[in-house]
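quick q for whoever's on today - can somebody do inverse folding on this one?? i tried earlier but teh output was garbage lol. tokens:
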């Protein structure tokens, strides 16, 4: 992958995310973690090589096929991608509204999630009035509400205190147990060691896979990712 005519920021990479697996994406600043996340979210196409998502070659996808694939992906990227003209709760409800859920049920689910991430008193606020940490927690609630097939979280605990980081990590692990294939980019090696999931380790655009320590439990399998 390259940006425009720049040099390649990811190269010689080959890996597979098994359905229901959980991986940490690690590596020094500038190694290419966010770029790999953008590739997996189908926000960028590979400049060469092959990326297959849910069994589809992403390079051959038509533009109008992207939304239905993206709906299977919950994403917490560093730019949050929140809709500023909607309230916090409307942002969280949106993925399920698009999927055709009943308003009353979706609202109750969104309220429960927003309370879990500590935003019970900010449900009516619009994103521009939220702090960085609040926006991040809002993006997390929106990413997980639909129990996506794939969850991509880029530094999801970067702007929160240790108690909230604990809560958020618990949320991700619970979702993974329900079958969501999970990739969490982090600089926080304490989490990587504690959870004991395998690592996709990037260094200057090249990737090494580091297996989970023996005996470490990872998620269950649900559907093809
Ligand atoms: N939009 C962009 N246009 C051009 N180059 C970019 C762009 N975004 C990232 N890069 C470059 O791609 C390389 C990888 O950056 P990336 O943001 O993916 O790294 P990272 O591992 O996520 O870093 P960090 O941990 O600091 O967030 C860097 O050399 C960066 O300068």
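ok took a stab at it. sequence:
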């Amino acid at each position: 992958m390259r940006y425009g005519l720049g040099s390649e920021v990811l190269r010689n990479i080959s890996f597979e995310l098994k359905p229901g697996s959980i991986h940490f994406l690690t590596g020094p600043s500038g190694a290419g973690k966010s770029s790999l996340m953008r590739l997996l979210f189908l926000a960028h196409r590979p400049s060469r090589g092959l990326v297959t998502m849910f069994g589809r070659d992403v390079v051959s996808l038509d533009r109008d096929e992207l939304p239905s694939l993206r709906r299977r992906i919950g994403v917490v990227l560093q730019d949050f991608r929140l809709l500023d003209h909607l309230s916090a709760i409307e942002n969280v409800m949106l993925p399920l509204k698009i999927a055709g859920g009943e308003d009353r049920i979706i609202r109750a689910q969104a309220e429960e999630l927003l309370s879990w991430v500590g935003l019970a008193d900010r449900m009516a606020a619009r994103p521009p009035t939220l702090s960085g940490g609040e926006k991040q927690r809002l993006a997390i609630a929106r990413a997980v509400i639909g129990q996506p097939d794939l969850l991509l979280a880029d530094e999801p605990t970067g702007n929160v205190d240790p108690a909230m980081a604990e809560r958020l990590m618990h949320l991700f692990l619970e979702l993974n147990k329900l079958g969501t294939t999970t990739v969490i980019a982090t600089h926080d090696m304490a989490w990587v060691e504690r959870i004991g999931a395998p690592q996709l380790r990037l260094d200057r655009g090249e990737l090494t896979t580091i297996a989970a320590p023996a005996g470490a439990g990872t998620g269950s399998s649900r559907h093809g990712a």
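fwiw Residues 1-72+149-225 form a domain with the Rossmann fold fold (CATH 3.40.50.300). also Residues 17 and 225 are 7 Å apart (CA to CA). so keep that in mind when u check it
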